[in-house]
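Ticket #4471: structure export looks truncated?
Reporter: QA, pipeline team
Priority: medium

Steps to reproduce: submit the single chain below to the structure queue and open the exported record.
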Amino acid sequence: MHARLLGAPSRASASTSSPSLPSAGCHPCRASWEPWPPSRSSTSPPPRPLLSLRARASMEPAPSEGQSDPPVHGVSDRVVGVLGGGQLGKMLCQAASQMGVKVAILDPLENCPASSVCHEHVVGSFDDGDTVREFAKRCDVLTFEIEHVDAATLEKLEKQGVVCEPKASTIMIIQDKFRQKEHFSKFGIPLSDFVEVDTLSSIEKAGEMFGYPLMVKSKRLAYDGRGNAVAHDKKELSSVVSSLGGFEHGLYVERWTHFAKELSVIVARSRDGCTVCYPVVETIHKDNICHVVEAPAEIPEKMKKLATSVAEKAIKSLEGAGVFAVELFLTNDNQVLLNEVAPRPHNSGHQTIEACYTSQYEQHLRAILGLPLGDPSMKAPAAIMYNILGEDEGESGFVLANQMIKRALNIPGASVHWYAKPEMRKQRKMGHITIVGPSMFIVKAQLDKLLQRDTNGVNKVRPRAAIIMGSDSDLPIMKDAAAVLEKFNISFELTIVSAHRTPKRMYDYALSANERGIEVIIAGAGGAAHLPGMVASLTTLPVIGVPIWTKSLQGMDSLLSIVQMPKGIPVATVAIGNAENAGLLAVRMLGSRDPELSERIYEYQQNLEDSVLGKAQRLEELGSGEYLKQYMKP
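Actual output as written to the record:
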């Protein structure tokens, strides 16, 4: 065994075994963390001889009847041991620091990303059994940020009383991707067809059975596109097998999946088996490496529920607590198929740091320590995570990355995470940037700005609001809504869409509004209010109907039609002809998830108040007669 300690002194077994913690509840809650208390005085008694965790626990005197457990200082007194000190370990340590939880890491690199933020760093191999056993003695619970660890040693440690989360049995299943497929298949999880291959004839038979292209995969040590290869026809099979190390390396094949999108769901499981799921996200890959994550995924609600159900069912079939990432395919025929599972925090959950009430890293710590699970829901309406991948080798790669970081620092809602890896290589994950905002359209526009993407050479601002009317005769009224949106600097589009004369245009317009970035629609309402009603029935966006004044019934027919929409087709409305209030209502809807706009709305209301108070003061000072002469001239 070759291991040495950097940073803080060994915890050894000086402290008593940790008091029992409350079991994780099924209902998530948020917490405000207290700072970690000062370190123990240097005059503390010398530590006792090193003992295994099992021995330490058994030698502690049982509390006398009626005696309460010793108080926990802060969130938890337990030391978390993490196998691996890469970027996931670093962000886990950062979350732990906020909670006041001590984290020790085991990693062979002295300057690994987590080394600068952990409580202590043991330099050693996390897949060496002796090193892991010795490392476990200084920890109360073991977890990992990479699944390529010595699972057999962890299984032995569990039998000796060491707490490992997730369990060694889960790691063993996940480490072998073919075994992982077999496991999930037994539990009825939807998968692409797969079969083990160990000879040229068996893989040729698989090609005949599944067709081409054929996905060929290594059973072990495959991630970020490594260990996968595609055979486009029978002639390529031999070369593909050789590129993966031969059949002796352990191979299997999968039927090619024609997918519309790649999805991911982060699932957290507590020590008592409760689970919570983060919103479904879409992952976009570059050369088989996760490059962009969009949260939430822009897919129908029905598909989100199906993806969440598949993910949760898969994780409930495994053992142990922690955060799990479930990667999925959404096929062209609206099926959701499981691709693979990572039993740890994952690249597809980085955006949870800024976008969710509980980050995946804090959640992992809560889960493995037996604390209540946190709220996984998003606190920002939309977020995009962009991986900073090495664009070149060495210093030139660092220069390019730094240029991108400088641009990110000037973008509202953008947060930079730099992993501080000492060596730059092409396609290596060096950091990431998360952008949050009030809509997916806005964060995508900010990403375009970050990447200096020229959208057809025109810097067009896509609209957030739409003003539509059945005829240009409605424009004298609807222009007031446009004036309000302009005043609040809200981008909008204004056009004619007739429910009677252009029904197909109306249908296409309503169905496409959401994906085009529209967030609210203001629609002029004729006598029967067909336009706002039909649009509201076709879109999930809020629709505000403006009753148009007419000579026949002075707009009463429009107003009554709007307020009598059938159940399930809500249309908001305002006074007859009051498009200005419709514009203000749209502004408030947008401001509910846009802090900057909300502040402008507050200023607008303050100005209204100041205007009224000013008038009151002048009326009181001048009297009614003089006031009428000066301010109310005919």
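Status: closed, not a bug. The export was complete when the record was re-opened. Leaving a note from the reviewer for reference: The mean pLDDT is 87.
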